[in-house]
Every structure is written in C-alpha cells, then in structure tokens.
Write a structure and sequence with these properties.
Elements (H helix, E strand, L loop, with lengths): L1 H25 L3 H21 L4 H27 L4 H6 L5 H13 L5 H32 L1 H8 L14 H15 L3 H24 L3 E2 L2 E5 H17 L4 H16 L6 H14 L1
Antiparallel strand pairs: 1-2
Length: 281
C-alpha cells in the first residue's frame, strides 16, 4: 500500500515536470524557456524525493489532494465563466502600476498557507503543503492557458506582465523554489526565509515603480532606488529573525547582484534558490 501512494505521487510529479519543461521549450521567451526548464527539473527531483515520503504523508496527499485538485478545476472555471466578476475587477487595477504590482505580489502571498500545516504538524505538515501546492497551481494555470483568449484582456498587466500572459505564471517559480528549499531543509525557518526573500523582492519592484528615478546603467529595466530598498528590507528582516551579521552581509550582497544584473532566469526562482540555499545550509 505504501508503494501505491508514493508511486502515485511520483507519477503525478513526473507528469507535472514534463508538462512544465515542454511548455518552457515551446516558449519563444528565453527567460521563460530557461526558468521553466529548471522548474521542471526541480519537479523531477521532487518526484524522486517523494519515493521517500512517509506512508501517512503520501496517503494524505492523495486523499486530501485529489478533492483540492477538483476544487481548483471548478473554481477556475467559475472565475473564467463569470467574466463580469473577479476578472473585470482585476482589469481596473491596470490604471495604477503600483496597485497592479501589489496585486501581483499579494497573489504570491497566498503561498503563506504553507505556514498553517507547518506550525500545526511540523515537518510532516510542511512536506504535505509544499507537495500539495504545485499541482494545484499548475492545474489552475492549465485552465487559464486553455482559456487564454477569454481571460488575457483582464489579467494582462495585473497578475501577469505582457510576456507572462501566454506562459506559466511567476507564482509557479515561487512554489517550485519553496519545494526545493524545503526538501533540502524541512523546517519553519526555510519557509520564513523564502517569504523574507519574496518580501524584499516585492519591495524592490514597488519602490522602483513608485519613486524610482535612476535606472541601473547595465539593466535599464531596474531602478537603483528599488534595488537599494529591497536590499535594506532583506537586511532588516534577517536581523529580526536573528541571522548572524556575516550571513546577512553575504545574503544582501547576493540579493543586490541578482536584482541589478540581467540574467535569463525569473527572479522568483533565481533569488529564492541561490539566496535561500545559502541561508538554510
């Protein structure tokens, strides 16, 4: 029986990993192509790691996860069908770049739901959560992309930027990064670190949009003010959770470099993996 549950999770993650890589290879955007390929490889890794999950964790992933997947299908279809509701409301946020960016980042914050099972059940609850969320998010993305012509006018420049509309959403990268980090070090600290990096990244984007006046010379898409504010935010938050000063210096240096330079990997993936891995090992 143990083999059956673990094999089911393994198979599911192999399918999800393949879907992610295939979608990435089909993309004409180099950033998405590389980011989705890396994400798919991480999902493959998670598939192999799932074979070592305890029986009861695998059992609850199947028993509770299946209704969650079905609910995701139903809710996503309802949102797409009820055009005059949520989608039209979101489209109004286009009028304000700051509100739009806040909406994007708040969508990422929904991942905080991982904290609930982690706090209640410890490592086992955390493992269940980090394994349950990627399939649910990829399910909702599959439905969105299947109905791309219907929902694109409403989500464009709100939850998704121009180049993201026809690709898997950036929240997928965040979920996959947390999955990787948690399998390396399954603890509450790992989840907190992931969200601290995400908050710093959000601060960078919002500051750059709202008060940014000076472009980074070698990356015209970013503002110096944004990078500075994100770096300071990361330092303060790491101080609050009592990280050693040397670690904070290295982490903030990595953050500033990754934010300033232009690399063909989504920052929700690159920052989380590089900075997060350094801080948790």
């Amino acid at each position: 029986m143990e083999l059956t549950y673990n094999a089911a999770i393994f198979l599911l993650y192999i399918i999800l990993g393949s879907y992610t890589i295939i979608y990435g290879l089909k993309s004409s955007n180099l950033n998405h192509k590389i980011s989705l390929t890396i994400s798919g490889c991480i999902i493959y890794y998670a598939a192999i790691f799932s074979l070592n999950l305890a029986l009861h964790i695998a059992y609850y992933l199947i028993i509770i996860g299946t209704p969650c997947f079905l609910a995701t299908f139903i809710i996503s279809e309802i949102i797409l069908w009820h055009e005059k509701g949520i989608l039209r409301y979101l489209s109004r946020l286009k009028e304000s770049r700051i509100k739009s960016e806040l909406a994007r980042k708040s969508f990422h914050s929904l991942m905080a739901i991982i904290l609930i099972p982690q706090i209640l059940y410890g490592k086992e609850g955390g493992l269940w959560a980090v394994y349950a969320i990627p399939p649910i998010l990829l399910t909702s993305e599959y439905i969105r992309l299947k109905n791309i012509e219907k929902c694109a006018p409403y989500l464009k420049h709100v939850l998704f930027r121009e180049e993201e509309i026809k690709s898997l959403g950036p929240h997928i990268y965040f979920a996959v990064a947390i999955l990787l980090l948690y399998t390396i070090n399954p603890s509450l600290t790992t989840i907190i670190i992931a969200f601290i990096i995400a908050i710093a990244d959000a601060t960078t984007a919002i500051t750059g949009i709202s008060i940014g006046k000076h472009k980074i010379p070698f990356n015209k898409e970013k503002h110096i003010e944004g990078t500075i504010s994100g770096t300071i935010t990361l330092a303060i938050l790491l101080l609050l959770v009592k990280f050693p000063i040397p670690d904070i210096i290295i982490a903030t240096t990595l953050f500033a470099i990754l934010d300033a330079i232009k690399i063909p990997i989504n920052d929700n993936l690159s920052m989380e993996i590089i900075i997060g891995t350094y801080l948790i090992i």
